[in-house]
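## Example record

The block below lists the input lines for one assembly entry, exactly as stored, with component labels intact.
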Amino acid sequence: MLAAGGEDARPIAGGHSLIPMMKLRMAAPTTLIDIASLDELAGIAVGPAQIVIGAATTQHDMISSEDLFAACPIIRETAEMIADPQVRYCGTLGGNVGNGDPGNDMPALMQCLGAIYVCESASGSREVSARDFYQAAYFTALQPGEMITSVCIPRPAQGHGYAYCKLKRKIGDYATAAAAVTLELVGGSVRDASIALTNVADTPLLAAEAAQQLIGAPLSEATITAAVARAEAITAPSADGRGSAEYRTKMAGVMVRRAIALAQSRAGEAQPKPAMPSSSSGAAAGSAPTQTNDDGGKGKGGFFGWLKS
Amino acid sequence: MAKKLITLTVNGEKHEVAVEDRDLLIHVLREKLRLTGAHIGCETTHCGACTVDIDGKSIKSCTRFAVQHDGASITTIEGMAHPDGALHALQEAFRQEHGLQCGFCTPGMIMRAHRLLQENPNPTEEEVRYGIAGNLCRCTGYQNIVKAILVAAEKLRQPEAAE
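Predicted structure tokens for the full assembly:
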């Protein structure tokens, strides 16, 4: 159906991004395909090496899952900061990561966790890393006729530290700036770290160089300050009602600093990383052949790639 | 535009209603079923005045198409009082504790509070405040709304008040 509808067909699950966009006349799909009742698109499977979450799984479902919280608690922490209770009953992971809104919280978290999006269309299935998925505001690697069906997250090491810190003007608001941090401490030294930023550019940002500043040494004022500086350096926020660009860059740094401190306080002795299967496609939905994302970012697609200018 | 026939069970009563694809649920409830308890406040998913309970979830009915809920079971504020007309404990508590002034947000507040107390019958004040974060009130400053929900929660926990 999605393929038959062409560029103006969209899947709808929670509809809490799409319907407001339609009201604003920023989106005018001619065909909507309700996928909310497709059971195979919803659900959370926590495996020994990876976590697979169906695209139509709601934020409420993710918050409620004790298995998910035990394996990867930062997902609940982040989901609880999205919008308000009514919206979380409807809003889905697939919609949050797939529509390319830079204000959404899950995209940066998925970049931090190294998640893979399983994208399916009538012609097959492919996997796109969250770190390669976002091209510009509302422009993503998704092609017309294609949708995200599930998200695969490598299971973090037991004992890892984590935090999602979000500065917002009021509850329910998009972030002025937010940071997701995961840390693995072994014998007081940082074995691995990952940092990503929300809403301080027109895409989520993986702060790989910032994380690199932390790895291989105990956390210290010097390494944290270096990481904050590297994170601030990659931001490119716009000035809006949430503050000037300079302010939002500084707040991104503050969120990184707070998230590192909170992650450190929560970190135990990190256990060995769960071994990943040779290909993550084993647990992905569907058995269609996997192809790589060779788009190179040139052809801009995406859920809202057809936005009226 | 072609209309579709959908079935909605609202406050226990089954309705077959012809809707356009683009009809929002709040408009169908108010204009077709003449249930005007749920209000249209902002129509942008912010204010929560249109909150109704659908299959065990609090939903802002201005941000759902009616066709998405074919076959659903919906409770609105009109379905909260007992059949004999006695008010629900939440309605009673809002009245006693002055949990409303102009009353515009009240139907949404009560429907949200109802689901909150179903999920967490003994919430702390902080949990109440977090739980009603999707409902805006411009009159009360929330103080008496929070108090009313806590009073209702306590009353609903008494065995003789079993609903």
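Helices of chain B lie at 25-32, 89-96, 106-119, 125-131, 143-157. Chain B is about 30% helix and 15% strand.
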